[in-house]
# Entry
Amino acid sequence: QVQLVESGGGLVQAGGSLRLSCAASRSIFEFNALNAMGWYRQTPGKQRELVATITKGGSTNYADSVKGRFALSRDNNKNTVNLQMNSLKPDDTAVYYCYARLNLVNYWGQGTQVTVSS
# Structure
């Protein structure tokens, strides 16, 4: 079992920045064992879509819509993954879900709201 706790969502004007954090409620050994971690997002009437993920080996994968604006990083000492979001657009408005994979099992956070005003 892996529990994911998200923080950092909120309201920001277009062009502004937010930083999302996701903490895994397990030991650092268990955190380091995670095969992948990152963020997805979802708006009403749309499928959940990938935002950014990072593997245990450090490889990153970003959605085309956020490349150059978002940056994903891992902090192994704090058992967290951070998503720095810059140059935010109204289209970035969504519920953002932390994601982690341990072996063959996927885990999801509760979700945190990000709203970007025009």
Summary: The chain has a mean pLDDT of 93. The two ends are 40 Å apart (CA to CA). The first helix runs from residue 28 to 33.
